[in-house]
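Final report, Chapter 2: Outcomes

The project's central promise was a pipeline that accepts a single protein chain and returns its three-dimensional structure in a standardized token representation, suitable for archiving and comparison. That pipeline is now operational. To close this chapter, we reproduce one record exactly as it appears in the project archive, with the input sequence first and the structure output second.
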Amino acid sequence: MKYTGASLTFVSVRAAHRVRWTAVWLLVALWFVLQAVNVGGNAVHVVLLVAIGILVYELLAEDAPAA
């Protein structure tokens, strides 16, 4: 099933879900690495906030209606 209302009609709902979750895991891993090497000071927490924002979007976003 493809979401027909989006500008990227070739991306399925399942693929978009996987892309968002992959981005979250990569951002969390990046946050841990940046914390470990002590880069960015307190500004590095923005990386974690972006990951949380993606998760909130994932929680609140409505799936495409079944055709």
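Archive annotation: Residues 13-60 form one domain.
This record, like all others produced under the grant, will remain available to the consortium after the project formally closes.
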